[in-house]
Design brief:
Strand content: 15-25%
Strand order of the largest sheet: 4-5-6-9-8-7-10-11
Shape: elongated
Number of helices: 11
Helix content: 40-55%
Number of strands: 11
Radius of gyration: 29 Å
Largest sheet: 8 strands, antiparallel
Structural class: alpha+beta
């Protein structure tokens, strides 16, 4: 009995996540057409499960389709469309996976991961069209009843749908347990629910056999409603991804990962977004005032390790250091604790796009250029107009991060000045004038 329960996914490890010893994300995954969960897509075994699920459901739908043409059952037609919708999601997603493997280029600097979002839109439109077709056929049959032939074969086709979905359910649950994927396990239970939808076709055939011919189109309408529910759920998920939305649980998990690094003073901000099934995160932290540059590097590395351990889909983690965390102050001392840097300058030109700002670092104040997009071999220099002559600050990469350039020394006071950002790349140069203005009320 234990082996039987284990086979059907009811064993003790059914919902276990394993991994790094935490119970994170449990139960937070569901089945959404057009969006493959990263815990599936980032493993070879998970992609293998997607392939074979497609094969089994395609065979199931093909067998049902033959009976649809012979019998004219709209309930079986709706169930067949449902199973086709489950199977066909693998095709555009697989195409998207192939394109997403291409290396980044000068045009697509983040690669082609967003193709997965476009594939999701295509899938939602396909399912929407199929739901409209199924609903139209069911309503037409209610208005213009027609006899159904081969009732026995209709019932058998419904059973085939149940068996096909149950086979996929068992397969997904078993593989999900092997790779510790709560998402694939949830997909398995979704397939099992679809199997019971197929059994509804059998009930419709029995109803017609007992002398109630409208049972078939009524069952067809109920299945159509289920398909429209899938369209609604999937469209929300796909559009959320396209608009750079993430599940709130991911943000919570990033905060939780930071709790494992005791040297962090405070997590100042967290941003994350999906590019395909790969997660990118940007975390801003503060550290105690007495922290040295070596301490800061250690904290940054430790946080990145925790982030990658907690989030299997994470491929890039950018950790930024904001002003050091100071002890709590009250009364008149409070005003001195506020960061008084000028407003950042938004850089947008042919050579680069990003943000230029004055930031506090463990080594003191620095001018930093954080780059979102840049040309090859980019070099940056800030030239500040001073009464005694120009102040020139060359911006160098921080560590190996070519998306962050900083001055090696602090800009002179005051931090209110006219300046130019000079960007060069190979034989091209662009000069961007800008102005830094200190907040009102700040004096030296």
């Amino acid at each position: 009995m234990d082996k039987v329960r284990d086979w059907f996914g009811f064993g003790p490890m059914t919902h276990g996540m394993g991994g790094h010893g935490h119970d994170h994300g449990d139960g937070g995954h569901g089945h959404t057409h057009g969006v493959i969960d990263p815990t599936i897509a980032t493993t070879t075994r998970g992609i293998w499960a997607i392939k074979w699920s497609f094969v089994v459901l395609a065979i199931t739908a093909g067998l049902q389709l033959v009976v649809v043409f012979l019998s004219g059952s709209v309930a079986l037609l709706a169930d067949t469309i449902h199973n086709v919708g489950d199977a066909v999601t693998a095709i555009p997603l697989w195409i998207a996976f192939v394109l997403a493997r291409r290396k980044p280029s000068k045009t697509f600097t983040y690669g082609l991961g967003r193709v997965e979002d476009l594939a999701g839109i295509v899938i939602v439109l396909i399912i929407l069209f199929s739901a409209i077709v199924a609903g139209y056929e069911a309503i037409d049959r209610l208005i213009n009843p027609r006899p159904i032939a081969f009732l026995g074969w209709v019932a058998i086709a419904g059973l085939i749908g149940f068996i096909g979905n149950e086979a996929v359910a068992v397969f997904r649950i078993r593989v999900g347990r092997e790779i510790n994927s709560a998402a694939l396990i949830a997909d398995g239970y979704h397939a099992r629910t679809d199997g019971f939808t197929s059994l509804a076709v059998v009930l419709g055939a029995i109803g017609v056999w007992l002398g109630f011919p409208l049972a078939d189109p009524i069952i067809g309408l109920l299945i159509t409603v289920a398909i429209f529910a899938i369209v609604w759920q999937s469209s929300k998920a796909v559009l959320t991804r396209m608009l750079d939305g993430v599940e709130p649980a991911i943000i919570d998990e990033i905060h939780h990962a930071a709790e494992h690094v005791s040297a962090i003073g405070r997590v100042e901000s967290v941003q994350a977004r999906w590019i395909g099934h790969r997660l990118h995160a940007d975390v801003a932290i503060s550290v105690p005032e007495m922290a040295t540059a070596k301490d800061v590097l250690g904290v940054t590395d430790a946080l990145k390790q925790e982030l990658f351990a907690h989030l299997p889909a994470l491929v890039e983690a950018n950790v930024r250091l904001l002003s050091p965390a100071a002890p709590a102050v009250t009364g008149a001392e409070t005003s001195h604790a506020h960061h008084h840097a000028p407003e950042p300058f938004k850089v947008a030109c042919g050579l680069a796009a990003g943000t230029l700002e004055i930031v506090d670092t463990p080594a003191g104040e620095r001018i930093r250029l954080t780059i979102d997009r840049h040309a090859d071999d980019l070099a940056a220099t800030v030239i500040i107009d001073r009464p005694g002559g120009p102040e020139t600050l060359r911006l160098e990469p921080v560590g190996d991060n070519h998306h962050r350039l900083e001055s090696t020394v602090a800009p002179a006071e005051p931090h209110e000045f006219q300046a130019s950002l000079v960007l060069t790349a190979k034989d091209r140069e662009q000069v961007l004038p800008f102005k830094m203005v200190e907040p009102e009320g700040h004096h030296h």
